Amino acid sequence: MRKIIVIGAGGISSWLIMFLRYYADRDQLNDMDLTILDPDKVESKNLKYSNFLQEDIGKHKAEVLGNRYGFEYTKAKLISPAQLKDYDLVILAVDNSEARNIVYKSDIFWIDCRSKGMEYSVFFKSKDTKNNTLNLKRAPESCQYDQRLKDGIIDCGNVISAAIGVAQILNYFRGNMSVSEIVGII
User: How many CA atoms lie within 13 A of 65 on its CB side?
Assistant: First the structure.
């Protein structure tokens, strides 16, 4: 059994988790035990670009997605590498550098999905990963540009990042990770 933890349950992960359920139901992710970790609650602004419904507002994101797609969840915040000790793979889709720093410094294999507007990227740990090539001090921010949302424009870089992240998870399960440690643009 491969234990996976998805850290973050927002604009990227809400779609990534749906895609994981899709592939798990088609026997493409055999022996996967998945946990979702996120302390945040669904807000009305999340409905525009995330995989949440009106009735989810005020509920914990991890709980909503865990119940909807049949995965374990925790409403905790990642504050220590000890929280990762039981996992084989970490999927990051967070808006803060603290979680990234904890995960990047761990020995666990990780895939980091990021997005801003139509821009997207997916990084993953390889034996040659140089953490200093990635901006770990990036300020917390949405996967959407505020002004574009105010103008009624929803970009889908977050969904693209989620789909590429799932492709990399499938590659991980199949023992076929690509040579590069970055996919996409941002």
Answer: 34
